[in-house]
Structures are given as structure tokens and as C-alpha cells.
Amino acid sequence: MFQFTEFLRKIDLSPERVRLLRHDARGVAAWRRGGARAFGCFASFQRRTPPPYGGAEFACHFLPSSNLPDGTLTALYVGTTRIADQWAWDGDRQPLIRDVEIIEGERGRENVDAFDLEWVEQGSEYAERLLINWGPGGRAWSQWAHRRQKAILEIRLQPQEPPFPGFSGFISRISEIPRFPQAWTGSLEGVRGVYLLVTDDGEQYVGSATGVDGFMGRWRQYLVNGHGGNVLLRAAGHQDYAMAILEVASPDMSLGDILTREAFWKTKLGVRAHGLNAN
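The chain above was modelled as a monomer; its predicted structure follows.
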């Protein structure tokens, strides 16, 4: 089976000079939001101990992908950076790869080192195409390339995002919003309508999305505070709701029309009497 170390040698990178980093959900969110720029800036800030780059000259970056049937982790390659410089982050000097949202989020953090990273051309054509077997555990998220062999499971013909399941087939969770593919986000921002939230205990809440950013705009409010301004949801405390779309509003529907459809679904599902709707 073709190993990732062989891939590195084919693109003229010595495995002994390379660290492999399998980033977490924050990295996924940065990549989905702003591609190489936002992700590169995200990767430019790391906790001082343990040092994930560990004296390497290059870093190959991966995002978590679906586990194998036996639970083994996989990782999707998104590119390689050269580690050009490192310093103690003080909020003043900016990294080479800059993203305002990332940098603002790093201000005030302690025991953080900043890095000047530079994306390299070698292997860039395989970004989001090359999937490897990471191994059984995710805690060792930064490893030397030459010390642990990683089998290449798949080389895709082209980068691919999971296909949007359609509005009627859409089911997800609030916590997954930052990791939505860009195409999903665009689809959900472009429509308004009526949605359903379900707690882990099975309690239901029916709401409507009527703003300019559609379903995504409304659901982002739950991501921020867990209740979106609803009294009963606030009383229940922050919860990671499952969410689904009950009805998509046609473009010519008025705000009043959408609210009427919301009231219809509240009655049909009985959420005023047995759910989390107070009105």
C-alpha cells in the first residue's frame, strides 16, 4: 500500500524534516470559512507546550474525516507549509498569513507562539484529494512523518464536499454549523421558512427563519447563546439541538405568511402543550 512518506519523497520533501498535523474542528471551521488564508492564519498560532511543529522545517496539514468501520481515524490532506519563523505571541507582530477574525480571537491568549508559515507548491494539487489512515488515536495530533507510517487510503479525482442533502432531507446539529461546507451554508442562507429543534431528551421547538440570512442566520444565534431569545430554551440552558427544516418559504411569501405557517406547524406537532414553545 502506498505510504504518505513515499508521497513526500515524490514531491521532494524529506519525511525527516516534516511534521504531520491532524487539526481539530476549529481547523475545519477555518478552512470551510476562508480556505488556505483563514486556515493558514489559524495554524500560525499554537500553544507553546507541547510544541506541535517541534523543530520541523515543514508541516503537512490535515483535517479530520470519517472514521473507518473499525474506528480508526482518517485525515484529509489540505497542503504543506514551510515554517519560516517563530516568536512568542504578544499581539503586536502579525504572522505572514493573516485573517482578521483569527487574529482577533488570539489576542490576549497566553503561552502561545506565533509562526510565519508559507504555503508551498509541492503537493498543492492534492489538497482535499488525498485521504490517509491516521491510526487509532486522535490525541497524538502532531507527529513526525518518518516515525509512523500513514497509508494512503484514497486519491480523489478532484476535491469534493459532501453533497447537500436537500432541504427536506437536511438533519444536523447546532454544533456542526462551523463545519458546514460552503455550498451548504450558501444554500441555507438563501432561503427562509420554518424549522424544528429537538433536544437530546426529545423535546421539540418550532421556529421560523425570516431574516436576510435565512435558516443559517437564525441558527447561528443558537450557536452563540443556546436559546436565540426564546424564554423556555433559555431556562433549559445551552443545548446542542438537532435541527431540521419543516417547510421552505416561497420567495413571494411575506413575513406574515411565514409566521402563519409557523403557527400551523406548532399546532400540528403540539409543541405549545408538550414542547418548548411558549406561544
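The two ends are 60 Å apart (CA to CA).
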